[in-house]
Amino acid sequence: MPAGMSKQSHQARRSQKVKEINIVLAGVGGQGTLLAAEILGIAAVKTGLNVRVSEIHGMAQRGGAVSSDVRIGETVWSSTVMEGQADVLLGFEPLETLRNLRYASEKTLVIMSTETIPPTELAAKNKTYPSLNEIMKKICLISESVLVVETRKLAEKAGGSLMQNTVLLGALAASERLPIGKETLIDTIKELVPAKFLEGNIEAFKLGYEYVKTSQADSSRI
Q1: Got the DSSP string for 92-136?
Q2: CATH number, domain with residue 190
Q3: pLDDT single digits (tens) 62-87
């Protein structure tokens, strides 16, 4: 940081250089979707950026569809992402990712968990859950930028399946689409996650981050 420049003024100058980024988070109740949105919002403020986080869309009870919008930029007035305007679609569940694909376009980065939670309505209507390949084919018709993350496997490696949300945050940080540093996100996780779950969540974040970085490195060698 240049001599004589305060931390606040440095952050303010940084925020002026950041283009608007629109993120849609889609999952089901109990996956930590809303906590992930809160972490992104607070981390953006810590970075000196303007941010708006939407209210809940859908039902917040366990198993019900949940989505949240996070908008970050120099001047952000509305908390709602318009259809086709998402820069990132962060999918905590494949079918819910597909259901929120209307917010995506060819420019959208889709980061999707492989963890499936079939909604009760499928059984009620005698319908089967689509295969991951079917879901991927439909997503790739809209966007060519898709990252699929084995969140359960990584979360369990970190200590528990409930930490899949922080695995996805790590994956998002590794994509380099966020104007927020990795350490700022980790600091925010430390503030919001209860102490007894903190070590595992930080490890889950790092595993998600490394998963994407490794995948990108492997792709560049092909």
Answers
A1: SSHHHHHHTGGG--TTPEEEEE------HHHHHTT-PPPPHHHHH
A2: 3.40.920.10
A3: 668 899 999 998 778 788 999 999 99
